[in-house]
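Table 4 source record.
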Amino acid sequence: MEGRRLPLVMAPPKGRGKPPRHLADLDLAGRQDAAKEAGLPGFRAKQLSVHYFERLVDDPAKMTDLPANQREELVNTFLPDLMTPIRQQEADKGTTRKTLWKLFDGALVESVLMRYTDRATVCISSQAGCGMACPFCATGQGGLERNMSTAEIVHQVVVAARQMASGEIPGGPGRLSNVVFMGMGEPMANYKALMGAVRRLTSPAPEGLGLSARHVTVSTVGLVPRIKQLTEEGIPVTLALSLHAPDDELRNELVPINTRFSVAETVEAAWNYARVTKRRVSIEYAMMRGINDQAWRADLLADVLNGYGDWGWVHVNLIPLNPTPGSKWTASDPADEREFVRRLEAKGISTTVRDTRGREIDGACGQLAAQSVS
């Protein structure tokens, strides 16, 4: 593991205004309109879009196709500084990198880039903090500070793509292939910015990054109205439902939003997403010793999921619980985990156990807390 400090920048006090408007907040037509409003030729917006989304550049010195006397003005107009990396930590021989970002108003968020042999995935944040209050999650225990803007969300991905393309991550130059909204925050609680980001990530360059929607995963604890809204968007992202318990009594404790949207309502909304989009849903299930890992709960989980048919609409992703400060919960015994898998598979439920990356740098699932640099 290696830790590196990056230079701090001065920022306005928290809560002062909104993030400045950025090229990534707008579609291509909106950028061209903004250029004209600023007294600039509309085609300059497209040139800047090529730099940002295709060449992954935001340094005016590298934009040699722009007039030298206009570069600073164009960059200030369309690519204002939104966030600054203030600490990076590495694990897995440098192939896992967690970045702590300071946003324009001083709020802190984290993202994690993970390079595997066959893909590179960035786990990004959609809120500074989280208001869902799940007691086993470090982010949830910190509370919600504010929503992130579309551009703040997208910029995490652009930087990760730049790090891959430049060969900065061990393994040589490569391509960022996957994005998961599993960092800080509940993406569905910041729905407008979430969908703006999804569109920027999946739109062909130079309007966006041109990623496959099938390689973008949106995770939610189960905001049923928003799942229904996502179902109608026509963008086939992968939906991941953080269920963590198959019964309302326990889920009310582990995932407090369950007191508003029951297990049955939540799973039905997820099933309908799979039915409409033809995209298999991932059920996220953090395994907690003696809490939700009993064999009978595996049977109940399978029965709940099979209640909507056995056509393979769902995949269960078991997550060994990662340690967080002060938590009373611990990871399941490996034997109990194996039995849980066996029982799910015996009832025809596709199941895997997640390969945990970044645990030693507090970069794994449920560990992101954006601790400030001392």
